[in-house]
Amino acid sequence: MFREALTEQMTFREIERSQLIRQVDAALRAGYDLDDLVAQTSSMEDLDALLEPTSHRHEHTNE
Fold it and tell me: Structural domain boundaries of the chain?
């Protein structure tokens, strides 16, 4: 069910699977974790902005 819902949303929002994978991979390499991405993004534009070269590198800290 989750995959079906995700596929529907990606189709509705015109997000290509390969693009999403590349962006999430880049965010993980930049020091973000999945919880960060959930908290800080709600669209591909948010994810793009998070990864812009002018953005400061994120350092995940355990609190």
Answer: 17-52
For the chain, strand residue ranges (E) read: none
Torsion sign across C-alpha atoms 12, 15, 16, 22: negative
Could you read off the pLDDT of 2-50 as tens digits, one per residue? 889 989 999 998 999 999 999 999 999 999 999 999 999 999 999 999 9
Inter-residue contact 36 to 42 (CB < 8 Å): no
Q: Up-side HSE of residue 22: CA atoms within 13 Å toward CB?
A: 7
Q: Which amino acid is at 12?
A: F
